[in-house]
Amino acid sequence: PAMVPAVIALLLLMLPAMLTALAVVREKELGSILNVYTTPVTKLEFLLGKQLPYIGLSMFNFVLMFVLAITLFQVPFKGSLLTLVAGALLYVTATTGLGLLMSALTNSQVAALAGTAIGTLLPAIQFSGMLDPVSSLEGGGAWVGAAYPTTHFLTISRGTFAKALDFADLGGAFVPLLIAVPVLTLLSMLLLRKQGR
Fold this sequence. Notes:
Blueprint: H1 3-30, H2 33-37, H3 43-71, H4 81-105, H5 109-127, H6 139-147, H7 149-162, H8 167-191
């Protein structure tokens, strides 16, 4: 009952971030991103165009994992489904934003895969409360845990599955996710070069 909702959070972090990172970096490697440089498309429009399909795909994966959790693994769902779906939507928007950020920082698919894996799995497993409570962390680890999106989606996922919580109880976990989405998008815009070298 505790680990299945956590694994949902982990899979919704790693795979969407990697796919989104590869979407932009692949164009850099193939040279097709030069087509974007010559169009009037803004960096925000380009990034959102790359991100939106993966948000949709991630939500489809979320539905499949939710169905598997309650049928195959027989984890009882006691809370608000609308709260969980809203949290998942914000979360996958943030995780695909992490992928966009990594794609803006790297120029090869290998570097994007490695950077995304390290930048998502390590903080998610070590600092998000998946294995140890965030309240037990100190120093920089506590800061990473407080800022990382997985920490807050874990609260939403476990709260709705095991504790029958709804939006009134989990509203505080939505705030960091709402902040993470525009911050990651802005950083990706700033770091993505619209002009080729």
